[in-house]
């Protein structure tokens, strides 16, 4: 894909994100490779203008990978302007797909350009938080877009909500943490940390290795949202959603 075409698609996505509008998905069907999809994403990040504060990781479990017809995760940007803290309200807008309960990590130092293992991560991570990612699409259509379109479209990320830091997270088995979501008091979703590549820390290793291939890396202060523990929580306007991470913390949000 020519650079001019990448820039054009990136500007269209940035304008759609800023205006909360949907645009035609047809031009994005010409994105024929993952490399081009990430190049368009980079152009969309540059055109949007907000400060990138980290990364979301999507498709971190086999069920979602099957929906995208892929065999590994993908990543997208997190922005300072759409990072919310604590219980909050979220504006409803076209293309919203819902909320995802996730473990989010804050990098305490730059990651080295080396192969890492799980036991290397605690020394590199400042904190682990309970979090919710709001996902949605800027492209016309329903459900999940094709993989390359989803990657180009900011990895279908919309907003990022962090709750309190998890105390002594290094001593917890995050894969065993039970995670539930309730809408107006009725449980709608459940899962565990194991839904995220067996352990949310595995998602960080995947992101580290993937970013190294893309001539960048994780830096001190970066946020990493590691993928949903319980599927997607339907976005129902006016409904309060409570998300609980057993023994770790909770947060809530409301659409509209």
Mean pLDDT comes to 96
Q: Which shape, going by the Cα principal axes? A: globular
The number of strands is 12
Query: What separation lies between the terminal Cα atoms?
Result: 38 Å
Helix content: 10-25%
Count of DSSP helices? 5
| Widest sheet: strand ordering | 2-1-10-5-6-7-3
Beta-strand percentage? Answer: 25-35%
Descriptors:
five-stranded mixed β-sheet, 32% strand, 256 residues, 5 helices, Fumarylacetoacetate hydrolase, domain 2, alpha+beta
Your description of this structure?
- The chain is of the alpha+beta class and 256 residues long.
- It has a single domain, classed as Fumarylacetoacetate hydrolase, domain 2.
- It is 23% helix and 32% strand.
- It contains 5 helices and 12 strands.
- The protein has a 7-stranded mixed sheet. It has a 5-stranded mixed sheet with strand order 4-12-11-8-9, with no helix packed on it.
- A hairpin with a 3-residue loop joins strand 11 and strand 12.
- Helix 1 crosses helix 2.
- The N and C termini lie far apart (38 Å).
- The model has no long low-confidence stretch (mean pLDDT 96).
């Amino acid at each position: 894909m020519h650079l001019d075409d990448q820039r054009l698609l990136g500007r269209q996505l940035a304008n759609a994100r800023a205006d909360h509008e949907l645009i035609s998905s047809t031009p994005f069907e010409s994105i024929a490779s993952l490399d081009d999809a990430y190049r368009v994403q980079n152009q969309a990040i540059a055109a949007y203008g907000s400060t990138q504060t980290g990364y979301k990781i999507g498709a971190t479990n086999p069920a979602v990978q099957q929906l995208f017809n892929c065999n590994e995760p993908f990543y997208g940007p997190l922005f300072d302007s759409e990072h919310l803290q604590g219980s909050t309200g979220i504006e409803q807008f076209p293309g919203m797909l819902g909320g995802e309960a996730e473990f989010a990590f804050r990098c305490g130092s730059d990651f080295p350009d080396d192969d890492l293992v799980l036991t290397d991560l605690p020394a590199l991570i400042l904190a682990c938080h309970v979090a919710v990612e709001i996902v949605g699409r800027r492209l016309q259509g329903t459900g999940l877009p094709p993989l390359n379109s989803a990657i180009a479209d900011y990895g279908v990320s919309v907003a990022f909500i962090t709750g309190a830091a998890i105390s002594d997270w290094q001593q917890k088995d995050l894969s065993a943490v039970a995670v539930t979501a309730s809408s107006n008091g009725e449980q709608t979703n459940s899962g565990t940390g194991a839904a995220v590549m067996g352990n949310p820390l595995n998602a960080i290793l995947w992101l580290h290795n993937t970013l190294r291939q893309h001539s960048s890396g994780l830096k001190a202060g970066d946020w990493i949202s590691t993928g949903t523990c319980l599927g997607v929580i339907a976005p129902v306007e006016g409904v309060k959603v409570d998300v609980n991470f057993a023994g770790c913390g909770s947060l809530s949000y409301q659409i509209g």
